[in-house]
Amino acid sequence: MNAPLKSFEFRREREASWRELENLIGIAEKKGLKSLPAEQLLRLPSLYRAALSSLSVARSISLDQNVVGYLESLCARAYFQVYGARSNFFESVGQFFAVSFPAAVRSAFWPIIIAGFWMTLGLTIGFLLVQASPDWYYSFVPADLAGDRTPASSTESLRRTLFDGADTAERLYVFATFLFTHNSKVALMAFALGFALGVPTILLMFYNGLILGAFLALFDGHGLLGDLGGWLSVHGTTEILAIILCGGGGLVLARAIIFPDQNSRLDSLARRGRAAGTLAVGAVMMLLVAGLLEGFVRQLVTDTAVRYTIGGLMLAFWLTYFTFSGRGRSDGDD
């Protein structure tokens, strides 16, 4: 008689909180957590923890298996309400772009500035070296990226690369796909190399700056720098910014390893790695936009002034978006 009595007393003392938890879970499962009043939402975690404690005790003293089974089911249902997904796919995507991504950019402001500095330094050095000696161009720019744009090209042939649009939809599609794939590889490599204390990330930023500077010097030597600027601005204000963001994400990882916070390096890396990963995912989406602009809009719009306008509007959009979107709702720490 002792075991049944113990089970009865155990259940009598705690059943009210179990029933309260079960009622809240039933409402949440039918109507969603948002349907619960604020005071009931605050009660849910504490009731869940109390039920877990009851389950632990019930198992340790071998109570009635019906009680144990009931508590196991109750705790499992409560877990998914307390810790499970609270939004559908589209709400999660909306939350990412409206709040998480711009907040991650703001929290990584200085790493992004540092990544941009190294790319700008590379651009300046590449420009000056190629301007002084065009042979440097071949050292900086890979053949698959250079294509027909080399120091041996005539002014007219270089001009054609800026203003001759693609003439078929298939060529537009292939060009956009190639550019998106190439730039995504560069950006994600800059992010991933942050685990190597950030040095390879800085070198990659610097090298990509050298490539861009070499292109600018090549076209400047033929009096086409202004036209090249328009050609680049259509997609470049999105593409270059995305690559810099990935570089900044890599430096966030490096900082977590080199300068961990009060927790261990592993904990610091896990915490800051989430924000860095958000940067990388958002930057890849930006590169998709840049690939479409580069493969379609830039090839179809041949007026330099219009190209500059499109590029300027894209830059204004990104700066406004990163500065104001989701501010005050989910800004992370740096």
Task: Write up what this structure looks like.
Helices cover 81% and strands 0% of the residues. By secondary structure, it is mainly alpha-helical. Helix 1 packs parallel to helix 3 (65-82), helix 9 (169-192) runs antiparallel to helix 10 (199-220) and helix 11 runs antiparallel to helix 12. The protein is elongated. The relative contact order is 0.12. The mean pLDDT is 85.
Radius of gyration: 29 Å
Shape: elongated
Low-confidence stretches: none
Strand content of the residues, in percent? under 5%
Mean model confidence by pLDDT: 85
Structural class: mainly alpha
The H-and-E topology, N to C, reads as HHHHHHHHHHHHH
Biggest sheet, open or closed, and with what strands and sense?
Answer: none
